[in-house]
Structure formats: C-alpha cells, structure tokens
Amino acid sequence: MESPEIDAYRLVVTRRNVSEVLLLKGDSGWAVPQVEVSPRQRLAEQLTRELREAFGVEACCLLIPSVPGRGPTEDPKWAVMECKSQSLGNGRPAGFWVDPQAIGDWIEASQAHLICDVLAQLHRQATTGPFARPGWLEELFRWTQKQVSPLGLRLTGVFRQLNASPQFSLVRMETDRRAVWFKATGQPNVHELSVTLALAGLFPHSVPQIFGVHREWNGWLSAEVAGTSLNQIPDFAAWETAAEELAELQISSIGKTRELHDAGARDLRIARLVERIDPFLAHMDLLMAAQEKRQPLPLSGSELEILAEGLKESCALLETLHLPDTLGHIDLNPGNIFVSQTGCTFIDWAEACVTHPLLTFEYLRAHSDRSGIGQPASSEHLVAVYMRPWTSFHSPDEMRRGLTLSPLIAIFAYSVANDSWRSPGLVHNQRLAGYFRGLTRRMYRVAIRTAQRSELCLS
User: 6, 121, 245, 442: least CB-packed within 10 angstroms?
Assistant: First the structure.
C-alpha cells in the first residue's frame, strides 16, 4: 500500500512549562489545532509552518508521540508543540489556554485522555534528550546570541525547525545579516560532532565554518553555506564542479586518514571491507532463506558464493592500483553538496569514512546518472573531470581500471558502513530484511556485469 499523500496531525500546543494547553473554538466546539502535512517532506518544518500560518502561533515541535491503539498509518496523528509567543495572532480563530488537568471540562473525554497521555510521554522523553524539554528553544537562542555577538551579528527571532527528536535537532536562525544553523545529534550519530570539528580544522574551505560548540547537547553552530544545493541546479556544469572539487578534497586528505579515523570517521578501507564479505553474506544467506514472498527470487547459496568471489576479486584488483586511502562520504548525495561561484561546500558528515577514493566518486556518479540532467556522454565527461586532479599521482589508465571495479565495492561499502546488518533480530524485521535482500541482489547483478566486462577486456 502506498503512503497517503496527506497526514493529519492534532497539535497539543503548550506554554509556560506545559502548564497550559491551547484550545480553539471550532464548528463542533472546543478542540486542539489540527493541520495537514505531506509525509514526503520534513515533518517538524511543516508542523511549525502550518501552525503559524493557519492559527498565528509561533512554536517549536517537542515530540511526535506514539498514540495507544492507533497504527503508524492511521489519522490523525499527534504532535506536542511549545508556543514561542504568549499570545495568538490577530484575526485568528478564537482560543484560550487551559490547565491540562481541567481539559476534560472542555473537550470530549477520550480526546482529553489522549492529550494527558501524550503529555505524560513528553515528561518521560524530556529525561532522554534536551529537545523534548520545554524551554530548549529559548535556551538555544540565548546560547546562539552569545556565539554570534563577537561576529557583530544579532538574531532576529525568525527560525526554521527541521528536526523533531529528543536527541537530534536542526534549526536555522536568521540574523540581521546572514543565517546560522544549529545541529545536534544523538545515537547512532554522536560521532558527527567530532568528525565535523576535525574536518573544519583540516579542510576549512570545503566544509561549513563553525561558530560554536554546545557540548552538553552534542551540537554545533555553523554559518549558512553559500550557493545552491546540487539537486536544485539544472546545469550539468555544477556536477563537473562538484566532481573536480571532490577529487581535490580527497587529494588534500592524503596522509590525514589517522586523524580522520580518530575523530570518528568509519574505517572502510579495502582490507576492512574484505574482512566483512563472508560474515555479511552469511547473514544474507539467512535472510534469503527466510524470504516469504515468491518474487523477486531469493539468491541461492551458489549465487551468493559467486558474489563473494566477485567482491574479493574486485577488492584485490582495486588494491593493486595503489591509490591512497582518503576522506570518503557514504552519503554523498546532491543535497549534501552546495555549489557557488567560489566552489563547493560539502555538508552532513555523519557518514564520513576513510576509504578508497573511487568509492565516494561512484556515489556521485550514480546520482548524476539518475539526475537526468546530462547528455548520454555526460557520465564519461564527469569521469574525465574527476580524474584531472589525480593525473599528478596516477595514470588515467589505472584510474579507469579502478572505475570499472568501484560500482560493486561501493554498494558493498554502503551495505556494511554501519552494523545494522549484524542485528540479531534482522531476520524478523521485514522492512530492513527486505532492504538488505534488495541490496544483495543488486550487488549480484553488478558482480555479473563486472565479470563479463573483465572477460571482454581479457579477450
């Protein structure tokens, strides 16, 4: 079943440390605000925008609770919001603030019970992370102003909240000149802070400038990146710029891989990938055997053996090229690359790694092929642009040989970048198990094509 195009959310809007809840007057009596959002866009950003535009309430999202007795696809869903202003906008629906304990006097009993339940969840979640705690946004504004005051910047109060999670946050705040971004991460991405700081120190011209670090929240404040994200530029020349600057960034990281690894970048060097081939495929064998659907066909044991042989052979051949390990980015998608007149900025480094350079370029090339922007020969031209900075280190023939092997290894590196494939309960998680089966089938198809190309070259 496809996801619905619209999700309805009931909003428990609070203020004054959750001592009051907003009720609005509607056609059928008093109720909490309700908005509609798209499931395909950032939820927190939509909730805050709809609440502001429809009801004149400036708020941040504290929690997306689970509601007893309702499935994940049932409407309406619920969210807990905290009002940033103390009054409603002029010309908006009539409303008033009520003590949560007395809310049953104004609305239907079952709805009042649900509101009390989600507020109890908020109270519990506030102990697990700072961003479910009432008042965190005001605290963030005070802290941010201290960081930007020495730069001559003043916050205007205008903000966009993009994430809503107890341990994760992403907020854009406007100043009287340029906007700043605050980002914080929890498990499993706690390491993103240390990686981001290391990259800012090593490669300041390729990553956002850091203005401050909030250690207690595992967060950092950075300058808004200049330019436009690659996925919003309908010009293939921007992809060429990204490819060339990726190569230059990788070359500048040669000899710095120990510092990157110590900062938390994943170790995806070829030797480490080889160590994971047999354990990974053993897990995939179990998943294939547990597949309940008839189609697509699960891979057989012999097919998995062919894949194992293809992975090991491709890794061995890739190592014979003696390209150095460099900084890598497992999630190098066009939304993480900003292009301006002065060059490129690469963002969101939770998936930073130390690996063979061609693997990261393969992710960029794959996104380029799917973008539909270039012409039939664009992929080959992108390769030529990427190879240009490398010619001082390695011959074009070596690079091209490596590029015939990198698609297969890039998919494998992506598959084993974190330990979710090792999860003991993976076989019972239908969604995740299906995801890994799909990746493995894709690897098998690429392995067959890679072997066929090798045979043609030998012939």
Answer: 6
